[in-house]
Every structure is written in C-alpha cells, then in structure tokens.
C-alpha cells in the first residue's frame, strides 16, 4: 500500500515501475476501482488541494514509486509544474472516456476498449501492445469497467472465440488488433 484514503497527504508519487490500483470507498462501504496506474503516471493528484488522500493506492505487483514532497512543490521548476498540469489534464480526459465507455458500451466493447487502452499505454512504455500480462484480476477489471467477474470472463471468452484475442490466464495476446479497435469504438467487428 502506498497510501490510503483519509491518510495525511504529504507527497505525490511518481510511478517508476509496476502497476498501481487506485480505488475509493463509497459511503455504503463498496470499493470502486478508479484506475490502474503505470510507469510515468502520478499518484495523489486527486488530493492536491486536500489535507488527506482521497483514494487508496495499492501496488498489484513489485513496483517502485518516487516520492515528491508537497512542501517542495511551490519551489519546483516550471517544467515539473507543467508536467503536473498536463498529467492532471490527461487524467481528466481519460476519466471522461471511461465514463462514456461504461455508460454507453456493451460488456464486450468495454473489455475490448480496456485491452486496446492497456496495449497503447504499455506500448508507450516500450512493451508490446499485442502481448499483455495483466497484473490485475478479472474481478478488478470488472470493478473498474462496472461489470461482474463473470461478465468479464464471458466477454474474454467471446473475444477469443471471435479470433480477436488469445487468453492464457493473465496473458492476453491480441490477434486482430484492427478488429478489436473497431469493436472498442462501439462498432461491431466484421469477420
């Protein structure tokens, strides 16, 4: 655990390695996963104007974060301030895209969008966008996508049966990237 909601906020964290799950608790005690952060992303931005962290940040595997003390931010370089601002803007746009996806796409389309998005993010880090080793469980993916574990599992099976992906546990091979992208955009993949 990097930090928990309600814990005194004293730093932002730069993800240097690993995959970090962020989540919040609803008023009735349910956990809602808000994202999976990878190398190059910042943790704690949602609480930058608060005294305590607004969410939980938990590593899903071996990882490394670099601490950026809040007390030093006023004296930081303009380049760091620009980086924080652009990261905030990118997070807002990503949140909008996921709100739209969970509100308008079918289960298969949401899972396809998740895989395409994860592939793009991994590719920017120098990894293959077609061979994904998912650090999160299917239940965590479902929570993030507002789907049940069973629905995620069935969606992965259907995508595999259509020849779009190959599922080997947490290893997902993307076999037909163009068709998966078409499906993720809300249109039916043609075969």
Which short descriptors sum up this protein?
191 residues; three-stranded antiparallel β-sheet; 9 strands; globular
Question: Mind explaining what this structure looks like?
Answer:
The chain has about 190 residues and is α+β, with helices and mostly antiparallel strands. About 40% of the residues lie in helices and about 25% in strands. It has 5 helices and 9 strands. It has helices spanning about 80-105, 105-125, 140-145, 150-160, 175-185, and strands at about 10-15, 20-25, 30-35, 40-45, 55-60, 65-70, 130-135, 165-170, 170-175. β2 (about 20-25) and β3 form a beta hairpin. The N and C termini lie far apart (about 45 Å).
Shape designation: globular
Strand arrangement within the widest β-sheet reads 4-1-6
Q: Averaging pLDDT over every residue, what do you get?
A: 91
* Poorly predicted segments: none
**Helical run tally:** 5
N-C termini distance: 44 Å
Computed CA radius of gyration, to the nearest angstrom: 17 Å
Largest sheet: 3 strands, antiparallel
**What amount of the residues lies in strands?**
15-25%
Number of strands: 9
Helicity, as a percent range: 25-40%
Order of helices and strands: EEEEEEHHEHHEEH
By secondary-structure content and strand pairing, the structural class works out as: alpha+beta
